[in-house]
Specification:
The protein is an alpha/beta fold. It has 14 helices and 20 strands.
């Protein structure tokens, strides 16, 4: 069936303007999420998205706002389809706002191919499991919660922690071995100071033609915040599956995105669910997160790192809670670790990459990687117990092994986890620091690593051959 081109028909029955919302009558056949052009007498064209349809009335949100508009001087042209954008390598090196309009002084992005911002459903039969590591150059991630090509691995943070610094460092440094690597950074609800920081921090990668920046400011329209990650993922999918690139999509802050979904839901007068969020928040987030992965017969991949802040550090808040159900692990930032001047303040015992075994180990990173990671995490858990005991009885009353574990934790936090915001560490450097920390423990405590690997990698005489 051919969809009529309603873009040629102007609807002038605009019945109400309230804030960024506009009610249009005589809109039979208009659907939800349909995109529209808005002609304003004496002003440039604006754009709108249909939020709700009730009979012959349609409720639209104007992306540029309704300031300066008046009833009788407006005409609306419905396009008969959701928002489409041009896709292709022309986006690389560009800096745009949340709806894809240039902020870098360049011309609008054009391409021969256009795709809907909602993407196309992917047959699960054609998905193939994520594999191979994405090296971020950040020891806390590469060593203990390895990011895998095609994975979705969120960062859980709290207001005031350096999650934006970490997100930009990941975007600036990440790479895959010998492959064509691209980054799409989608910022949502950012202050103008944060946007300036992102642009400055990622300038080098942008100048190299390896980065796409989509920047939605806190004072931009709410509906734009909902479009931003969808536009970013549409760009990423084309770069990955048509151009053959490995694409990393960093999305920050997903809590701002969810709040925009809640605000639009309220405008639609939908019945709220938990904490005022709509009942479909889970499926809405899934439509974003599930757009990552690897596809049979295609060289590229889409890897997603969403960043979200947990209000009051509450991991049961709907946004982190639902995100945890959809994604494959999490990297958790801790205020307590940040208070000890450790960057990035990753709580390694609360963090997890469920696909790490698919991307690390022999033939992927290094043969000792998985065993070293397991041993470091087990020792950190034991060190936490020893530290809690020391607070009760004093460190002098502890046994030799417990004191060694406390020294081990200090070495891990100060040397392995702690690094500069511009510091890139190779995987060899990272694993070397992990082995140096393990060398502080008696060899008999290293029960998760084979003697062969201990003899080969453990620092010290004869491979750290001490009791």
């Amino acid at each position: 069936m051919t969809v009529p081109n309603r873009n040629l028909v102007s609807h002038r029955d605009v019945r109400e303007l309230r804030g960024p919302l506009m009610v249009v009558g005589d809109a039979d056949g208009v659907g939800w999420d349909e995109f529209a052009g808005v002609d304003v007498e004496g002003g440039p064209e604006r754009h709108a998205l249909v939020l709700e349809v009730n009979g012959d009335q349609a409720l639209l949100q104007v992306l540029e706002g309704t300031d300066g508009m008046r009833l009788g001087g407006i005409s609306v042209r419905f396009q008969g389809r959701p928002l489409h954008i041009p896709v292709g390598p022309e986006w690389l090196g560009r800096v745009c706002n949340g709806r894809g309009e240039p902020l870098d002084g360049g011309p609008p992005v054009t391409a021969d191919t256009v795709e809907p911002v909602g993407g196309w459903p992917l047959n699960p039969v054609y998905r193939i499991p994520p594999k191979e590591a994405v090296i971020t150059g950040i020891s806390a991630i590469d060593a203990l919660t390895t990011l895998v090509r095609g994975q979705k691995l969120p960062i859980f943070s709290v207001a005031g922690l350096p999650h934006l610094t970490l997100a930009t460092q990941i975007a600036a440094q990440s790479r895959t071995g010998g492959r064509n690597f691209r980054v799409v950074f989608a910022a949502m609800g950012m202050t103008h100071a944060d946007i300036a920081y992102i642009r400055d921090r990622l300038e080098e990668r942008s100048a190299a033609g390896e980065l796409v920046l989509l920047l939605n400011a806190a004072d931009d329209p709410v509906i734009e915040r909902i479009l931003t990650p969808r536009i970013a993922l549409s760009i990423a999918e084309h770069l990955a599956y048509e151009e053959g690139s490995d694409v990393l999509v960093v999305m920050s802050d997903m809590t701002s995105y969810a709040e925009a979904v809640r605000e639009v839901s309220a405008a639609r007068k939908e019945i709220p669910a938990r904490r005022g969020y709509p009942g479909y928040l889970y499926s809405d987030l899934a439509t974003l997160y599930e757009r990552c992965g690897r596809v049979q017969g295609r060289e590229g991949s889409v890897t997603i790192v969403p960043v979200l802040t947990m209000p009051s550090g509450d991991m049961t808040h709907p946004v982190p809670d639902l995100t945890g159900y959809i994604t494959e692990g999490q990297i958790v930032l801790s205020p307590d670790i940040s208070a000890r001047d450790i960057y990035p303040p990753v709580d390694v015992l609360s963090s997890l990459s469920r696909l790490m075994r698919s991307g690390a180990g022999k033939g992927r990173t290094r043969e000792d990687h998985l065993d070293v990671a397991a041993q470091v995490l087990a020792a950190m858990a034991r060190a936490r117990q020893a530290s809690e005991l020391a607070e009760l009885v004093g460190e002098d009353a502890l046994g030799e092994a417990d004191r060694a574990y406390i020294a081990f934790r200090s070495a891990v936090e100060e040397k392995l986890l702690n690094q500069g915001v511009d510091e890139y560490r190779s995987l060899e450097q990272t694993l070397g620091l992990a082995w140096e920390a393990l060398a502080l423990l008696p060899r008999r405590e290293l029960s998760m690593i084979s003697n062969e690997m201990l003899d080969r990698y453990l620092p010290g005489p004869l491979g750290g051959a001490r009791l």
